[in-house]
Specification:
By secondary structure, the chain is α+β, with helices and mostly antiparallel strands. The chain is built from 24 helices and 30 strands. Strand 15 and strand 16 form a beta hairpin. The radius of gyration is 39 Å and the shape is elongated. The strands form 6 sheets. Strands 21-22-24-25-26-27-28-29 form an 8-stranded mixed barrel, surrounded by 4 helices. It has a 6-stranded antiparallel sheet with strand order 10-9-8-13-12-11. A 5-stranded antiparallel sheet has the order 2-1-5-4-3, sandwiched between helices.
Length: about 750
């Protein structure tokens, strides 16, 4: 097979440059040197035996791909670290490969593989076209030109490139018109993609623009399933076609040559050339057009694949809305063009969606999210943006919004629309939402700032109970700055020795004796003073410091109890530490506790571990083994905030706990509320049935003490008896047993 290097080299150069390769070769399976090459290993700095290794690797991969039934790209890495990508090229008696070499050792991308596959097909097409010459010059050069033009085309520059190609085809063949038409199955018609030259005066409607397949014109009716090239001349009697052309262009008679664009036995459209008057189209010209048509089909498939990948990269799979990446890039572009663009960003989140998933299943939950997404899209204007960030979180950009009040009204309207019941999977589902709003103001903002501020406003809306709109303002800005300060300083607070432990005593209500202390963490903030846990514990959880802080609290509590035992004849008999679920199920938590007991010389019964009821119920399967391990050590176990977690008797029975701590919400108004008294009485009876001890939290008045004693709850803690105390003050309470608290 003879191959003209000047014909193939432009294709190889375009391929190599597009794929960041140092060389591109077409090599026969039984050959030593390439038939046609672009670039070289030597000029790229490869020397000596490395060149020999590379050539051997190219010959080996060529033999491998040539043996494949299909042209599938194969990638190898040489011992020297070079990457080689090759695919099969075959035409008549020629079998070999087109091969790329990359020096950096990186793998080729999926797009590189697509370009290589297309190039292999182009090589075969050029081989075919190169067999024929005519009065217009070498047709293989024309095919090579088209191949090089189409090599790097993307969806963005597709239209411009197609027009340039059909322009060159028209000039090359001396045609008066060149056109490209695509079949549209939805319209059931042939649609004009582009034409050269473009008509200056196009009739309206254009008889050549969209032509139905069921037309009486036999030429246009056949394009739906055209399989072979078609030639017609004025003398062929195609009167309806000639009349349609005359109506669309004013030309009385034309000669036409069309070749179909076929992919997987489906005719995608036609490429055609028209000569005004009579013209003979040679077999060589038609064969060249067929080769070019195959290039256009490959281009169409590649661009479609790229568009599909682009859509997947920029759209949410479930809802079809933009995803975070698309949203951020679009808003960035808007703000770069106009930093003070009048717009509002709305951060929306559904309220209590977990219930829908838990009760009706995730399939219904997903359908509900899809319905909500459509409702959000329908609630805004066409130029506004709706994107799904994750789960049930959506973000909306309202353009041309110049005031806070206008943004708030729009958000409330969206909120009301979303809250209307939806029919999903045979269920009528109604869920409210919360929306945080930020308006782009006088000071330019970045996308991150707008999103962050809208998120802060959303959190405030959630804290207000949901179903509300909150606009970001100066108060929230201050709150955001405080939180940012907390996050920044918390990361080093433990290592800087800024954390403190306070201890709230627990008393026997019958004689005033201290029965234990609960360790409570405080933060000695360098600027804001001593902070209670409520001021920073949520930030600790968000920045994943819970485990580190929890272990510090546990060890410091053990160290302090050991210190009390050394310095006082009457130390607190027990120290309790509240442990999060994350800490409890962390690796070797039981072993860590055992180590602390040994290190500080504590009896297991002197350490109490508390975990909230809601956490136990949510993580019951995971924490069961750890609780059993702690029980095996002899550590005292308590369920904190009992009464709020909806545990069943069956669940409570299987937990190895010793104490139920009654939540303060049932104790604070115990003397006045018959309902709270009934709940506490039921908890006490339940504890007695399971041989458990009860401890009441939040006792703040003597009436609560009297009621608790009457109900049979004999242990309690609260401000009435003692606030949380620093370590050095706790011993004073322990040394001086009080009188029965009923008498106080």
């Amino acid at each position: 097979m003879k191959m003209d290097p000047e014909t193939i080299q432009p294709l190889l150069e375009a391929l190599a440059r597009a794929t960041d390769s140092i060389s591109a070769d077409v090599i026969a399976v039984d050959g030593g040197m390439p038939l046609v090459s672009w670039g070289s290993a030597a000029s790229a700095g490869v020397k000596g035996k490395d060149i020999t290794v590379m050539r051997d690797a190219i010959r080996a991969i060529t033999a491998e791909v040539a043996g494949h039934a299909d042209a599938v790209p194969v990638e190898h890495t040489t011992p020297a670290g070079y990457t080689i990508l090759a695919t099969k090229v075959a035409y008549r008696d020629f079998v070999g490969s087109i091969c790329l070499v990359r020096l950096d050792g990186a793998s080729y991308r999926a797009k590189d593989r697509e370009l290589l596959s297309v190039s292999a097909q182009l090589c075969a097409a050029v081989m075919e076209a190169g067999e024929i010459t005519d009065q217009h010059g070498r047709l293989d050069a024309l095919v090579t030109y088209v191949a090089a033009e189409l090599m790097g085309v993307t969806a963005r520059d597709l239209a411009e490139t197609l027009f340039r190609v059909i322009s060159e085809l028209g000039r090359y063949f001396g045609a008066d018109t060149c056109f490209l038409r695509h079949n549209d199955p939805e319209l059931q018609a042939s649609v004009l993609v582009d034409e050269w030259p473009r008509r200056l005066d196009v009739p309206d409607p254009d008889p050549l623009g969209i032509v139905p397949w069921d037309t009486d014109d036999p030429i246009f009716s056949m394009v739906r399933d055209q399989r072979e090239p078609f030639i017609t001349r004025p003398s062929d009697g195609q009167l309806s076609y000639q009349e349609r052309v005359r109506a669309g262009s004013g030309v009385p008679e034309v000669s036409l040559a069309t070749v179909p664009l076929i992919h997987d036995d489906t005719t995608l459209g036609v490429l055609g050339l028209i000569h005004f008057g009579d013209r003979i189209w040679t077999r060589a010209e038609v064969r060249a057009l067929r080769a070019i048509a195959s290039l256009l089909v490959q281009l169409d498939a590649r661009v479609a694949a790229e568009e599909s990948l682009h859509h997947q990269a920029y759209h949410d799979e479930l809802t079809g809305l933009w995803n975070r990446r698309a949203f951020v890039e679009d808003l960035n572009a808007v703000l770069e063009a106009d930093p003070r663009a009048p717009l509002a960003v709305l951060f929306a989140d559904m309220d209590r969606l977990k219930t829908v998933n838990d009760v009706l299943g995730h399939t219904v939950g997903d359908s509900f999210i899809q319905a909500v997404a459509q409702r959000l899209r329908d609630s805004v204007r066409p130029n506004d943006v709706v994107a799904r960030l994750a789960g049930d979180e959506f973000v909306i950009v309202l353009h041309e919004i110049g005031s806070t009040s206008a943004a708030e009204r729009a958000a409330r309207r969206i909120l009301d629309r979303v809250a209307e019941p939806l029919e999903v999977g045979g269920h009528a589902i109604s869920r409210s939402a919360s929306i945080g709003v930020v308006v782009n103001g006088d000071m330019p903002s970045t996308v991150d700032e707008l999103l962050g501020n809208a998120d802060v406003a959303l959190l405030e809306a959630k804290e207000r109970g949901g179903d509300s709109v909150v606009v970001f303002n100066d108060d929230l800005r201050s709150k955001l700055l405080v939180r940012a300060d907390l996050e920044l300083r918390l990361r080093s607070a433990i290592s800087n020795n800024e954390m403190r432990l306070y201890f709230q005593p627990e008393f026997d209500l019958r004689d005033g004796r201290m029965t234990g202390v609960e360790a409570l963490v405080r933060w000695q903030h360098p600027e804001r003073g001593l902070l209670a846990a409520d001021a920073f514990i949520s930030v600790v959880e968000e920045i994943n410091l819970s485990a580190e802080l929890g272990r510090w609290v546990l060890e410091e509590a053990c160290r302090q109890l050991a210190s009390w035992k050394r310095t006082s004849p009457v130390p607190p008999p027990l120290v309790r530490v509240n442990i999060s679920a994350g800490e409890l199920i962390s690796a070797d938590f039981v072993g860590f506790v055992a180590t602390l007991l040994s290190r500080y010389g504590l009896a297991p019964a002197e350490l109490g571990i508390e975990i909230t009821e809601s956490t136990v119920m949510r993580e019951i399967d995971d924490v069961q083994a750890t609780l059993n391990g702690l029980r095996g050590l002899g550590v005292t176990l308590a369920i904190d905030d009992f009464g709020t977690g909806y545990s069943s008797l069956a669940q409570l029975k299987q937990l190895p706990v010793d104490i139920l701590k009654i939540d303060r919400s049932f104790v604070s108004a115990l003397a006045e509320s018959s309902g709270d008294r009934a709940i506490v009485a039921a908890i006490v009876r339940l504890a007695e049935a399971f041989n458990l001890t009860t401890v009441a939290e939040g006792v703040e008045d003597p009436a609560a003490v009297t009621t608790l004693l009457d109900l049979g709850c004999y242990r309690a803690q609260g401000f009435f008896m003692s606030k949380p105390l620093p370590a050095q003050v706790v011993l004073e309470q322990a040394r001086n047993p009080g009188v029965p608290l009923r008498m106080m």
